[in-house]
Amino acid sequence: MFIQTESTPNPATLKFLPGQAVLEAGTADFPNAAAAAKSPLALRLFDVNGVTGVFFGTDFVTVTKSDAVAWDHIKPALLGAIMEHYQSGEPAVEGAGAGGHAVQDGEESELVTQIKELLDTRVRPAVAQDGGDITFHGYERGVVYLHMQGACAGCPSSTLTLKMGIENLLKHYLPEVTEVRAVTL
């Protein structure tokens, strides 16, 4: 098994491409070891000293480390943990765990549908290439609330991406949108 790695815009996050499916669909975010209880793969990765977050896409794994450790020191252990997981035959996540957009009904449900469509077609594929995901969290009085995951969470350029990229895109297509804000869950 050959696992490729790619850097991300977030220096604390590295993207691993195992060359096999990680999830059937959606994403899974494990911002800490306690959240990884239903994921044999995430638990293995959190066993590596210095890992502070794990995120899965359909064909990639991103790992976030603390500033106290260097990639040169933990990367071999992470590659070993991913390889060991795939040799075990266990699923990456037990049960259904595909992440996605929050549901919002009401007067603005048509606008919310359009926001989600733009995110799915124009934003999420590009963000996934950088090892992260951005999901819809809510809409209220012109403000779109988005949740940043994986490499996007804590990335130094995430504010720029959010304000200059996503906000401008949504404002262009949907004049009702006046601002985009990040939320933490």
Q: Which secondary structure elements does this structure contain, and how are they paired or packed?
A:
Blueprint: E1 4-7, E2 13-17, E3 28-30, H1 40-46, E4 51-56, E5 61-65, H2 71-88, H3 109-129, E6 132-140, E7 143-150, H4 158-173, E8 179-183
Parallel strand pairs: 7-8
Antiparallel strand pairs: 1-2, 2-5, 3-4, 4-5, 6-7
Helix pairs in contact: 1-2
- How many H/I helices? 4
Superfamily at the CATH H level of the largest domain? Answer: Scaffold protein Nfu/NifU, N-terminal domain
- What is the CATH class name of the largest domain? Alpha Beta
What fraction strand?
Answer: 15-25%
Number of domains: 2
Instruction: Average the pLDDT over all residues and give the rounded result.
Output: 87
Record the strand order, biggest sheet.
1-2-5-4-3
Q: Radius of gyration from the CA trace?
A: 17 Å
Shape from CA axes?
A: elongated
Provide a descriptive summary of the structure in words.
With 185 residues, the chain is of the alpha+beta class. The protein folds into 2 domains: 4-88, Ribosomal Protein S8, Chain: A, domain 1; 109-183, Fe-S cluster assembly (FSCA) (GMP Synthetase, Chain A, domain 3), CATH 3.30.300. The chain has 4 helices and 8 strands. A 5-stranded antiparallel sheet has the order 1-2-5-4-3, covered by helices on one side. Helix 4 (158-173) links the parallel strand 7 and strand 8. Helix 1 (40-46) packs antiparallel against helix 2. It is elongated, with a radius of gyration of 17 Å. The termini are far apart. The model has no long low-confidence stretch (mean pLDDT 87).
